[in-house]
Amino acid sequence: KKLKKLLKISNRPCHNMTTCFFRPMGKSTVFKTLPGQKIARLELGGFLNTPQEKIFIAAGSEIRGFTKRGKQFLSFETNLTESIKAMHISGSDLFLSASYIYNHYCDCKDQHYYLSGDKINDVICLPVERLLREVPVLACQDRVLRVLQGSDVMYEIEVPGPPTVLALHNGNGGDSGEDLLFGTSDGKLGLIQITTTKPIHKWEIRNEKKRGGILCVDSFDIVGDGVKDLLVGRDDGMVEVYSFDNANEPVLQFDHTLSESVTSIQGGCVGKDGYDEIVVSTYSGWVTGLTTQPVHKESGPGEELKINQEMQNKISSLRTELEQLQYKVLQEREKYQQSSQSSEAKSAVPSFSVNDKFTLNKDDASYSLILEVQTAIDNVLIQSDVPIDLLDVDKNSAVVSFSSCDSESNDNFLLATYRCQANTTRLELKIRSIEGQYGTLQAYVTPRIQPKTCQVRQYHIKPLSLHQRTHFIDHDRPMNTLTLTGQFSFSELHSWVVFCMPEVPEKPPAGECVTFYFQNTFLDTQLESTYRKGEGVFKSDNISTISILKDVLSKEATKRKINLNISYEINEVSVKHTLKLIHPKLEYQLLLAKKVQLIDALKELQVHEGNTNFLIPEYRCILEEADHLQEEYKKQPAHLERLYGMITDLFIDKFKFKGTNVKTKVPLLLEILDSYDQNVLIAFFDAA
């Protein structure tokens, strides 16, 4: 199947670059090691200022080194309590990180150690041969780059998303040797200069096209203008090439989409002398290349394009190999059929790995669930015990069907099945949750393998699921305060915070007291959480956030038989403040709904009259933008109902803290919302 795919798409042009494929095994194999533990990282190293030709791999807690001919010269057991996740080699210095632990070794001797407050995604060191000092940098999940000096943090750099990959600009740190590239899990890319005193932000590329998270970057002059370009690989299979203009700002030159996430990317000359290439590896093990070599040969005027002899030889070779593989597959299939029918046959459940990611998108306040398997996916069953909405995804070609649920008897709010097309190895879903409704989302992944088997992945929908970690909040906003005191430990209260809010590290941070800031991605309200042993203080400009925390934390404490003393301070001004934040969103959705309702009637008038000249400009504009309006309205199912629900909750929560039950007044509130006027709504809140 893979070789059939090669034959089908090897001639497909990609802007000015062409797709070519390199077989990882065969005559060109230099060496291979015996199977062992999963290899988490591979890096090249060697003496400083010499070609980096030694191969270092990290597997479990062990580092092994090989020469380019395959001879093993190093086996170093680090004795780390966690498996190694990231590694950087600089001469005889080895920089390693596990989930939370960073270690620096020199000649395999321990030099420095650091325990991070959140997960470490990558580690790198600025070029020692240029700066004459060691400057390790950690990319941490809490949207921070930590610059180290020995075992201490020199300073922290806040970045716009959780950083997933670090790389030296131009491969050597740029002109100063201090320039560092970073990529984030939400698809942003940036360049920072790491000076001895403070960081200097040089540029940043926002993810305006809503592409996948960045997994790998490299610097290589693929355009051929003498300036190294930036090569980027994303988790949605997108490969991008950025060149730099006269102001040293990145400009997108090429892009190409693969069907799997790109795990590594490098520029070089591999397939044909004289033609530069970009070589990428993907999640299921493909090694794929984009080359500057022209695949089609231009003929004279009026003649058709002809494939040159070299390409014909390649295709002929691939066809021959395809026939051999088909014959081998047929033989193995016959062997399997014979063995399965014998009296001594034993059934074995085939194993497969699932690469999954469940992340909150700040732009549209929705969750992205990405499922990737190393073989073709047959179907995915989605089940949820909390109310959620499934949103349309343009990249998703699977056919979805919904099953009826009985939410009252078995807590089933959603049952949906996605049936994938042939050779689909990656599925992306979008989900929107409701704050205050918490539970579990489950995905049953069934690949196209025999015998049939599936894996279950669970994802927690948290009580404050639409909140996202941030570095700063506006302290001038009117805040409501919830204070908890009691006989609970710091770690117990931290576990409750982890249960309530996303993006909080599972391990309690170091120190006796901690403060986290959050922002609601839907309403832009904020939350400040400060707690220590025996006390927790939560401040928010949204009363509903405080109400949800009060209910959930009380329930969690009751489960553990811990007595809580709960006190709160409600700021009446915060209600009007929250309504003003909701106002532009509500007004926009009401106007959008009215426009969509008018489209069919206006189209009938247009057909009847033959033109739109008799319509006022506003109605003509609606007809011109009809497709866009309907598409936008379709992408936001239940958006208006969601806003109505938030206003209703705000109304109930405001009076709940006063000890008043106003649920009987909700129908009147909904009538006011149907004929929405901001001043009338605020007056209703004040008078109720």
Automatic annotation (TrEMBL):
Q: Does the keyword Coiled coil apply?
A: yes
Q: Where is the BBS7 platform domain?
A: 467-569
**SUPFAM superfamilies in the cross-refs:** WD40 repeat-like
**What's the source species for this entry?**
Muntiacus muntjak
**GO CC terms:** axoneme; BBSome; ciliary basal body; membrane; neuron projection
- Provide the BBS7 helical hairpin domain boundaries: 572-685
One GO BP: intracellular protein localization
State the source organism's domain of life. Eukaryota
Using the record's annotation, list all stretches that form the BBS7 GAE domain.
350-459
- Please provide the record's keywords in A-Z order: Coiled coil
The BBS7 beta-propeller domain covers 27-292
Where, if anywhere, are coiled coils annotated? 308-335
By what name is this protein known?
Bardet-Biedl syndrome 7 protein homolog
InterPro entries per the record?
Bardet-Biedl_syndrome_7_prot, BBS7_GAE_dom, BBS7_hairpin, BBS7_pf_dom, Beta-prop_BBS7, WD40_repeat_dom_sf
